[in-house]
Amino acid sequence: MLDRDGFRPNVGIILLNQKNQVFWGKRIRTHSWQFPQGGIDRGESPEQAMYRELHEEVGPQPEHVRIIARTRDWLRYEVPDRYVRRYARGHYKGQKQIWFLLQLTGRDWDLNLRATDHPEFDAWRWNDYWVPLELVVEFKRGVYEMALTELARFLPRGDHPRNRFLRGGVRTRDADSLDASGASHLPGADFELPPGASFDPDPQSSLNRAV
User: Fold this and answer.
1) CA-closest candidate to residue 136, choices 8, 37, 5, 19
2) How far apart, in Å, are the Cα atoms of 63 and each of 27, 54, 107?
3) What does the pLDDT read at residue 166?
4) Of 19, 18, 98, which Cα lies nearest the Cα of 53?
5) 2 inside domain
6) How far is residue 198's CA from residue 192's CA, in Å, rounded to a whole number?
7) How many domains does the chain have?
8) Residues 37-56: what's their mean pLDDT?
9) pLDDT at residue 160 in the model
10) Looking at the chain, which terminus has fewer C-beta neighbours within 10 angstroms, N or C?
11) How far is the C-alpha of 83 from the C-alpha of 137, rounded, in Å?
12) Looking at residues 73-93, what average pLDDT do you find?
């Protein structure tokens, strides 16, 4: 289901724990890390699609999370032709996404990377809010910056981590209104491996080796 401009409606999910760390998933059989996301089926609302994708990719049911906020508008990214099936080229341009900020009200054991027969991730960890964008596939990085920046002010308990992206000279659409002093990034150490999965303790070095 594409809109008139060739973008598929989609949802992105930023899932927090009680420490305001975010679920950070390693895409199955790749060196890329990302947030859960997925397409909106015909007849679904963005919220319905979010709950479905959350369960399919990460495991929680609606009663295990609460919605904190969502982006006001669609955020778009274009997919390079080399990632698009040949028959779709010329029609499919990319994704337009509504992003949801959720908090896990259940426990870590409510997460399950094998909730379906088609898993998206083979490892996960809790990571600081400002995730390392260099581990995200390049064409999604701009949308990640925009979503994280827009939703940061809704973090619970008034704990608003300073925008780490600005420290590297990366400007976002809201940069002029944010504190540019930045904060140290200390990747979360908690992670879970499903049966048969492996974990790379230094994904950045693996990414460099793979390029």
Assistant:
1) 37
2) 25, 12, 11
3) 55
4) 98
5) no
6) 10
7) 1
8) 97
9) 60
10) C
11) 11
12) 87
User: pLDDT higher for 178 or 167?
Assistant: 167
Token pair for residue 118? 């088609």
CA–CA distance, 56 with 112 (Å, rounded to integer): 9
Q: Of 116-120, 139-143, 156-160, 201-205, give the lowest mean pLDDT range.
A: 201-205
**CA–CA dist 20, 126 (Å, integer):** 9
Q: Has residue 19 been placed in a domain?
A: yes
Domain presence at residue 133: yes
Q: Is residue 108 part of a domain?
A: yes
Q: Give the span between the Cα atoms of 135 and 80, in whole angstroms.
A: 18
Cβ(113)–Cβ(194) below 8 Å: yes
For 153-174, the pLDDT digits (tens) are: 999 975 566 676 654 444 444 4
CB 22 within 8 A of CB 111: no
Instruction: Name the burial class of residue 115, with classes exposed (0-12), middle (13-18) and buried (19+) by CB atoms within 10 angstroms of its CB.
Output: middle
Task: For residues 99-112, give the mean pLDDT.
Answer: 96
CATH assignment of the domain containing 59: 3.90.79.10
> What mean pLDDT comes out for the span 78-90?
83
This prediction has a pTM of 0.77
